[in-house]
Amino acid sequence: MRAAVVTAFGGPEAVRIVDAEVPEPGARQVRIKVAAAALNPVDAGVRAGVFGGAGKRIGLGWDVAGTVDATGAATAWSVGDEVVALDHGMVKPLGTHAEYVVVDADAVAGAPATADPVHAATLPLNALTAAQALDLLEPAPGRSLLVTGAAGAVGGFAVQLAAYRGMVVTALAREEDEELVRSLGAAHFTSGEVAPGGVDAVLDAAVLGESALAWVRDGGAYVGVIPQAAPAPVRGVRTAVVEVDADGARLAELVKLVDEGVLTLRVAGTYALRDAAEAHARLAAGGVRGRLVLVP
Hints:
Blueprint: E1 2-6, E2 16-19, E3 29-39, H1 41-48, E4 58-59, E5 63-71, E6 82-86, E7 100-104, E8 108-110, H2 117-120, H3 124-137, E9 144-148, H4 153-164, E10 168-172, H5 178-183, E11 188-190, E12 199-204, H6 210-213, E13 216-224, E14 238-241, H7 248-259, E15 267-272, H8 276-285, E16 291-295
Parallel strand pairs: 9-10, 9-12, 10-11, 12-13, 13-14, 15-16
Antiparallel strand pairs: 1-2, 1-4, 3-5, 3-7, 3-16, 5-6, 6-8
Helix pairs in contact: 3-4
């Protein structure tokens, strides 16, 4: 099979398409024939060597939508099931940017009935990150939440999930994205001016750090999205970062919200797997709204 990997760190040109053996599922694992796999900023980080692994062949890709092709022992999934999954891991020999991928069975959920595989592939990593970040904020109806990077993939899901849970959401994004983030459920919009201590909580998808922390009221909460990069607590503000977990049961809940129209799946463009380096170059150019998706 073909797979996108890096064997030396660098820019988009470092992405290579190689021939690899089709992986075999072990106990409590399934093999998925990949129909679509989203490209995320974490893939660019892996490609650039941010997470280490020098001297190894490192597979790219975390998100997948496709069809169960084979199963190991002790799994409830069956061949032919249409699924989505998160293949968690920074340094791994193969990722989801391939024709087949093996994942743990408990990382899998049934695919949305209302979305094609290209759109479904944009859900796992970004929606799970947003949902698990919100959990850390202990959301409650009526509480005010500022989402930075609200027009991005994680930020957009965070806006929708927080609004669905009754929070009063302020979206921080570029001026040209105001209509978009309001359509996702933001009650308020700003392109940069936020009163110090003006909100109960911040979900910092744009990784603004201490400047975003200043916008939280005394005793409020801040959650970031880069592991080990939370600013130090001040003024009684609780700070944390989300470290996404490949939780198939939670992913199934998010799939249900897609089918109910609560969550919007946004695709910025599609590329053939053989053109993965071009997709990386487009991501690096910035300004992408939604996710770029690779199709084997």
